[in-house]
Automatic annotation (TrEMBL), chains A, B:
Catalytic activity: (6R)-5,10-methenyltetrahydrofolate + H2O = (6R)-10-formyltetrahydrofolate + H(+)
Keywords, in A-Z order: Hydrolase, Multifunctional enzyme, One-carbon metabolism, Oxidoreductase
Protein name: methenyltetrahydrofolate cyclohydrolase
Tetrahydrofolate dehydrogenase/cyclohydrolase NAD(P)-binding domain mapped to chain residues: 152-308
Length: 313, 313
């Protein structure tokens, strides 16, 4: 107990805010330089094609952001907008065409797809070597076996953000809150895996909490953790009392709420930021934390796919 | 603290020993009846082929055990013994032949293979629908995504043993000690996954500990756990002090040691059985716990493969 109080005081100067936007910009600049080099050597400029089904405004914003960033790093891109009532078969045909197009390196189907289309079939239809979202059975299988693969951009962004912030993970206690297959599960896999293997796991002890973890137990696991990564979409889930003084808190949650004070819409994460920053050692803001990293790692994956495809030619 | 002492006393009558041999026999009998039915309907008798490379005595015993059990449940089987100096290419050719043999439902390559052969290439060479060990990238990927698949026999056996012993898992705290890709990782995946999905996950909160988890932290996580599953091969790793009174302790470890009292060889698990049984609520012995379940679930997988292949014909 005394130790905790002592630590708390020594951290009372507030958490270091991890600037995801700055780190992502740095990564983008590195990728831009590397692509410039790659193209100078006579390779084709990497190309990313996004598929957007329907007219969900949030999806449109996400895809636009990705495409804008692609341009800044030197990846050419194109968005195929398809009607919301397209059949699954027609969508799979479009994917197949892109799979066979030698000028396309990365294919990204913006999720969610309309309900009449099976998301899993869509994810698996993307050619494994162009699967820059890493959602196919093949890439998930390889990642789960610590083999080199295309890893989903958000988990990869979380890992990269920690690495570049010099967060110690080896033998540390980490909690992942949320078990989604696109975010929580891959993060847990990469966090606990062996650093000597191809995916260069972070060798942390990992606890996976989820919707059926009783709140009291969630609080207990979090309070033991050197690192908390939360990806639930439940605003305010992680409070000050749950965080060990000095811990690193990574907030993957992103929820649009109406600000009770201003009446305006705003984006918030899972973490009670203003309170938790008073005890944590490091904390990511929302927005400006993990979000920009996702886009940066998508660029990383597209360039990786392009390099792999260039080798095969 | 008082609660713990109270619980401890109420459990002082010693843990219930989970009889894996009896449960495995029960499962074997169910499979035998189902196969009888399957064959009566005009289907070919399920067939399992094992590949044994080299002359490791332990591997020979394992394979013999599996083949004997196959006979008792009505699965025909055959063991291909190959010389230790076979090349990887030649081994892959043998696997490919079996992949294309319409009379073979399950293919099992007994691990480990000699060092000059890449184990991963071998596991991936087995046709996904005949991969009764569930070690291929395809089946690992599907399992990790909670999709129906052939799941490695030991993890499946651990889950089945808990289900048939009526161990509560929903929202409970579980620890998996060991992160191997064939045992610890799949157990962690199935333990924490969503019960509403195809793999019918057990919805527990899961902590994965491993060689880099500091002993003090391992003890802490274990002492919070309602369920401890250990798969490390470190005899005596789990001691009485680490176990919460009433917890369920599943011992997947199996190590051959020399008994200090008798001077004879004997098999032991990771758990200090005599001590831990005094506090645990349930405990599996070694031998006679998880071991027989592995063999039973291999039969389950072979029959499952046979049913799937029969549907495709």
């Amino acid at each position: 107990m005394k130790v905790n109080i002592f630590l708390h005081e020594s951290f009372s100067s507030m958490a270091e805010i991890i600037d995801g936007k700055a780190v992502a910009a740095q990564i983008g600049e590195e990728i831009r330089r590397d692509i410039e080099e790659f193209v100078k050597k006579g390779n084709r400029t990497p190309h990313l094609t996004a598929i957007l089904v329907g007219e969900d405004p949030a999806s449109q914003i996400y895809v636009n952001n990705k495409m804008k960033t692609a341009t800044t790093v030197g990846i050419t891109s194109c968005t195929k907008s398809l009607p919301a009532d397209i059949s699954e078969k027609e969508l799979l045909d479009v994917i197949d065409e892109l799979n066979n197009d030698p000028n396309v390196d990365g294919i990204l189907v913006q999720l969610p797809v309309p309900e009449h289309i099976n998301e899993r079939n869509v994810c698996n239809a993307v050619a494994r070597e162009k699967d820059v979202d890493g959602f196919s059975v093949y890439n998930v299988g390889r990642m789960s076996l610590d083999m080199d693969s295309l890893i989903p951009a958000t988990p990869l962004g979380v890992i990269e953000l920690m690495k570049r912030s010099n967060i110690e993970t080896f033998g540390k206690n980490a909690v992942v809150v949320g078990r989604s297959k696109n975010v929580g599960m891959p993060i847990a896999m990469l966090m606990h895996a062996d650093g000597r293997n191809e995916t260069k796991g972070l060798d942390a002890t990992i606890t996976i909490c989820h919707r059926f973890t009783p709140p009291k137990e969630l609080a207990k696991y979090c309070s033991m953790a050197d690192i908390i990564i939360t990806a639930t979409g439940v605003p305010g889930l992680i409070t000050k009392e749950m965080v060990k003084p000095g811990a690193c808190v990574i907030d993957v949650g992103i929820t649009r709420i109406t600000d009770p004070n201003t009446g305006k819409a705003k984006l918030v994460g899972d973490v009670d930021f203003e309170e938790v920053r008073q005890v944590a050692g490091w904390i990511t803001p929302v927005p400006g934390g993990v979000g920009p990293m996702t886009v940066a790692m998508l660029m990383h994956n597209t360039f990786k796919a392009a390099k792999n495809l260039a080798k095969c030619e």
